[in-house]
Structure formats: C-alpha cells, structure tokens
Write a structure and sequence with these properties.
Distance between the termini: 34 Å
Shape: globular
Protein name: Alpha/beta hydrolase
CATH topology: Rossmann fold
Keywords: Hydrolase
InterPro entries: AB_hydrolase_1 (IPR000073), AB_hydrolase_fold (IPR029058), AB_hydrolase_sf (IPR050266), Epox_hydrolase-like (IPR000639)
Oligomer: single chain
Number of domains: 1
Structural class: alpha/beta
GO molecular function: hydrolase activity
Domain AB hydrolase-1: 16-242
Number of strands: 7
Strand content: 5-15%
Amino acid sequence: MTTSIEYTDQGHGAPVIFIHGFCEAKEMWKRFETEFSPYYRVLCPDLPGCGETKWFEENISLEYTAELLKDWISKLNLEKPIVIGHSLGGYVSLALAELMGEELGGIGLFHSTAFADDEEKKGVRNRTITFVEKHGVNTFIDSFVPPLFTEEHRETMKDSIQEVVKIAKTTTFEGLVSFTRAMRDRKDRMNILRDFSGKKLMIAGVLDGAVKIEASRKHQSYVDYYHELPNAGHMGMFEQEQDTLQMIKEFLEA
C-alpha cells in the first residue's frame, strides 16, 4: 500500500475503530474517544484525502479503501477489532467485513446502509461532482453540512454545525470527488451484512434525509442491535449524543 493512514489511538484493551463519514475526519469522534478510551483501545483513522491523510491516487473505490485499512489494522496488530462507521464509514466497514470476515469482532452501521445507491441517489452524486468542480469544496461544504441536521437542530446546534463545517473543509477536492464516485458506484452488500458472523449494530435517524428510515428498517432482521433516534437527522453523534453513546456502550459490552 502506498499511503500512510493518519489516526488517533487512545486507551488500552479490545480495539474499537470509528470510521468517519463523507466530508468528515477523525475529529468527529472526540466525544466517543473520551467516553470509551478508559475501557477500550479507540482508534479513529482519516480516510485518504480527508483530515490529515494525504490524497495519493487518481481515483479510489470502497474495496481499495478496505484494502488500505486492512493493511493498517495488520501493521498495528489489532486482533478482532470492532469497526463502527458513520455514513460513508459504514460503507467502508461493510467492504472491510467482506474482505476480513471473521477477523473482525463486530461491525456497526451509524446512519448508513448496506444497499447500493438507487438511480435517484446516483443523480444526486453526479450533481455533487458537477457542483464541486464548478464552485469548489468550501462552497459545497457550506451548503451540504447544515441539512444533515434536522431543521430544529439547525437552530439550536449552530456551534456543532460550525464545528462539522470546519472539519469538513479539511477534505481535499480529489478526496471529495473520488469518494462521491465510490459511493455512487458501490455494490449492494446486504448479503455481507446478513452473513457476517460477528455482532452487528445499526443506529438510524428517523428524520435522516440522507439514509431514509424506511430503508434502515429493512436491515433490522440482519443485525443484533437495531436502534432508531427519533429526533435525529444524519448526525446522531451530535443531535442525540448521550443516546448514541449509550447504544454503542451496550453493543461493545455485549
């Protein structure tokens, strides 16, 4: 592998890896690191072209991203890590589960899905690429991040939204465009979720505009722990922080 994954590494014990979503970085998980590092070894990587991990390829796929992370996990000698991914991070987690199987201790999908994009969503991805090519990363981020929160939270959580905007703007143009393509072109991995033998968690936002709750509910029979956040959009780690911490705590203890 040709890149160096930048990451945080706190605590001791069983390894838990949190993988950030699209236009995010490892800083998204600060509160989770604080909560869980007294009991687990908590690792939060930056995906290529995001945060501090440099962009290095002309294009990237979820499969190649999974190869990179498998190599990184191997170098760190992490045994049976539990991998929890937000949005894009969930797609990467499923690709990692397909690649590593029982080498993983468990997987968690956080505002994510095992389904491939439908035609409508592929159209949204294509328009994103066109917009970013025309207007640049920062202008896109300013319009992209606030709607990830519910309308109510856009009023009450302005500091959190600005924090996410700041993190998002560390994404490179190449990383943003290539991961948009990777999400658009990803395959359906419902069979991977179904057949994965480790413990499985899903957290869904009832008001999520990016991953519709109707689609999330179709995963319910394939996971061991399924939770819905009634007052969250796509950013439950901020919108219902205490609830999500408790849900993940119960999953890790199991």
